[in-house]
Amino acid sequence: MTTQLPVALVTGASSGIGKETALALVAAGFDVVGTSRDTSRVTPLGGVTFVDLDVASDASVAAAVQEVSERFGRIDVLVNNAGVGSTGAAEETSVAQAQAVFDTNVFGVMRMVTEVLPHMRAQGRGRIINISSVLGFLPQPYMAVYAASKHAIEGYSESLDHEVREYGVRSLLVQPAYTRTGFEANSAKPDTPLHAYEKQRHIADRVMAEAIKDGDAPAVVAKAIVTAATDARPKLRYTAGPVAGRARILRRVAPSGAFDKQIRKMNKLAG
């Protein structure tokens, strides 16, 4: 079928930020396609069509995007939301484990963009919205690999935006702070834990759990994504929620020494 409504494709839409985003885009007047690695286990969402997709698989990405294009005749907005967490000291995380994180968080985004972009260029319009994080511009001790993946998305997305503007396409970033989702429970733990980091790792885990418990509702992030999808004059970056906004200002204006001390204080690091 070909629809006259704009079509949004949201990866990782079965729960958390992705689920709220899919529902918010439906309310904003989009035909929405959500993805999940196993749609047979997904609770139906009103107005959302689900397709199977594993962003870590070239074949799965190609098949899903082709299915959406054939069924709806267009793709106007791509929300790259699917992602995985990772905690533990950098030295405790093997290269293989880091590669697995990047395969979803970074290369998964690249796979989606590579498949969707030809459709957007052909129709002369489109928005690619990549879900970054405050950890795309802040350091986070005991989450070095995850922070690295989000820093990578920042550089990739901004560079891509310069390439595609002339074709009527924009590449935008949404930067949530800590959000009340299953992120912590679903984050990979270090696969080579070391005694030297054990005490501080447990402290970092508690700090993270508290931050998530007190974090923004996923709907706050969804609202920022809908704004990015619909703004007449889109911005390159959208912070989601007040904490993210304050963090971005702090990074920009705080002297480096004061900023460094604040990061260590927040994470209960000595010195």
Note down, in words, how this protein is organized:
The chain has 271 residues and is an alpha/beta fold. It is built from 9 helices and 7 strands, in the order E-H-E-E-H-E-H-H-E-H-E-H-H-E-H-H. It has helices at residues 16-27, 58-72, 95-105, 107-123, 144-164, 195-213, 218-230, 242-253, 256-266; strands spanning 7-10, 31-36, 48-52, 77-80, 126-131, 169-176, 237-240. Helix 1 (16-27) links the parallel strand 1 (7-10) and strand 2. Helix 1 (16-27) packs across helix 7, helix 2 runs parallel beside helix 4 and helix 3 runs parallel beside helix 5 (144-164).
Radius of gyration: 19 Å
Contiguous low-pLDDT stretches (5 residues minimum) are: none
User: CATH homologous superfamily name?
Assistant: NAD(P)-binding Rossmann-like Domain
Helix/strand/pairing class, anyone?
Answer: alpha/beta
Strand order of the largest sheet: 3-2-1-4-5-6-7
Average residue pLDDT: 96
Enumerate how many helices there are, as a single number. Answer: 9
**Per CATH, which architecture?**
3-Layer(aba) Sandwich
Q: Can you give the helix content as a percent range?
A: 40-55%
Q: How do the helices and strands follow one another from N- to C-terminus? A: EHEEHEHHEHEHHEHH
CATH class category: Alpha Beta
Beta strands, count = 7
Largest sheet: 7 strands, parallel
Apparent shape? globular
How many distinct folded domains? 1
| Beta-strand content bin | 5-15%
C-alpha termini separation: 62 Å
Pfam family, one: adh_short
InterPro entries: NAD(P)-bd_dom_sf, SDR_fam, SDR_oxidoreductase
Keywords: Oxidoreductase
Organism: Streptomyces ureilyticus
